[in-house]
Amino acid sequence: INFILAILVALLILVLLVLVSTSFEPQGIALTLVAIIFMRSFAIQGAMTGVYLDFFSDNPVTWYSHANIINKLITYPYDAPLGFIIGNTMGGNWNFNANASFWATDGFAALGVFGVFVIAFIIAVFLLFTKLLIAQKLTPIAATASIPFIMALGNGSFFTNLITGGGIVLFLLIRLVSRLEKS
After folding, report:
1. How far is it, in rounded angstroms, from Cα 58 to Cα 54?
2. How do residues 25-75 score in pLDDT, each as one tens digit?
3. What are the residues whose beta carbons fall under 8 Å from the beta carbon of 130, sequence distance 6 or more?
């Protein structure tokens, strides 16, 4: 955790130095650097979560029907995937996919503010169950292998990332390696 914190602090210091050295008007490569590090990594995900909260405060929630398996049981209330609904509402067009984190998609979009607590509970159960299956000495390897899945959660639904983002495959691999390690 200290290593990750050190990297985040270093990135923020780098962004601050670039901004200060360009009088807070970066151009060219400096603008690209600031945009990639700051905007894409930190700002957009938070901003989109707020947009989802605003939208689903005034519009029907999905009751998790945005997840493919659940929409077989519950009718999805929209004509397009969540990201495209939000993108079009933001003044874009139907080609703008305004995807957001699991807090937005599986929280606010699914059940409103209450959905944040529900998805927090679901993910906590998933993580606790996964931790129970991991051999103690494999925890650092499992945590490292989980980084792409965790990063994907910043830009999409937990359920989508389980299926198409490799979450289930990761879980099964961790389970397999842990079983091999124990035997």
Report:
1. 7
2. 778 877 777 777 667 666 777 888 999 999 999 999 999 999 988 989 999
3. 142, 171, 174
| Per-residue pLDDT reduced to its tens digit, 70-120 | 989 999 999 999 999 999 998 878 888 888 999 999 999 999 999 999 999
Q: With contact defined as beta carbons under 8 Å apart, do 102 and 158 qualify?
A: yes
pTM of the model: 0.76
How many separate domains does the chain show? 1
Residue 40 near residue 25, CB atoms below 8 Å: no
Angle at 141 between CA 135 and CA 142, to 5 degrees: 65
**Containing structural domain, residue 87:** 2-182
The beta-strand segments (E) located in the chain are none
Residue count (the chain): 183
Which of the 8 DSSP states describes residue 123?
A: H
Tokens of 125: 């159960």
Per the CB < 8 A criterion, the answer to whether 152 and 113 are in contact is: no
Residue 74 carries which DSSP code?
S
Q: In terms of Cα–Cα distance, which of 10, 31, 13 is closest to 22? A: 31
Burial class from Cβ neighbours inside 10 Å (0-12, 13-18, 19+) for residue 174 reads: buried
